[in-house]
Write a structure and sequence with these properties.
The relative contact order is 0.08. The chain is built from 8 helices and no strands. Helix 2 runs antiparallel to helix 3, helix 2 packs across helix 4 and helix 3 packs across helix 4. It starts with a helix and ends with a helix. With 180 residues, it is mainly α.
């Protein structure tokens, strides 16, 4: 337990090795919790990644009087609840649109231009990333490869791929928000 407390303290000051240790140590607990909740491996994995991302962003707020695992599971549970709410809202919106009998669902010329501009903007930001971050983004989102497939291609452990992707998404988000 002392080792975990040491890594938490180091992670609070930004030590990446400690972040990696905590992710590796608690990954299975969070993933199993989500797998029981969602019954979907992909969704459990995505929520688990979001959990660690949020936890590492907010690690300064962690109170040492509580177990770190409990804190992570609470974050994970809240992300799951939020995702269910979003899905519920999206379903409600779709139901309302269906009720209005929308006939033509094809995108307009303006919609296509906006989508192309957004894609070009996104590609510009992706190319600004370091090559190893750009690579995992392209494998995951453009080639739609699983974490396992990416890990095999890169000859790295799956957790390293997950962390790289997590960092790549954060850097990409920062790049996009700073440019606007």
């Amino acid at each position: 337990m002392t080792e975990i407390k040491d890594h938490i303290a180091k992670a609070k000051v930004g030590n990446q090795i400690s972040f990696q240790f905590l992710l590796d140590f608690f990954w299975n607990d969070v993933y199993r919790f989500q797998l029981k909740k969602t019954n979907n491996e992909y969704e459990a994995e995505e929520i688990s990644i979001q959990t660690f991302s949020r936890a590492f962003d907010k690690i300064a707020t962690y109170n040492e009087n509580y177990k770190f695992k409990t804190w992570l599971i609470t974050i994970s549970k809240n992300i799951h609840i939020d995702s269910k709410r979003v899905n519920s809202l999206q379903t409600t919106r779709v139901d309302k649109l269906a009720a209005k009998n929308i006939v033509d669902e094809s995108p307009t010329v303006e919609d296509q231009l906006i989508a192309e501009q957004n894609l070009a903007n996104l590609l510009f930001h992706i190319k600004q990333l370091k090559p190893h971050y750009e690579e995992v983004i392209r494998y995951r989102y453009f080639k739609e490869m699983s974490y396992k497939e990416i890990a095999e291609i890169l000859n790295e452990p799956i957790n390293n791929v997950k962390v790289k992707l997590l960092r790549a998404k954060k850097l990409l988000a920062e790049s996009i928000t700073h440019r606007e």
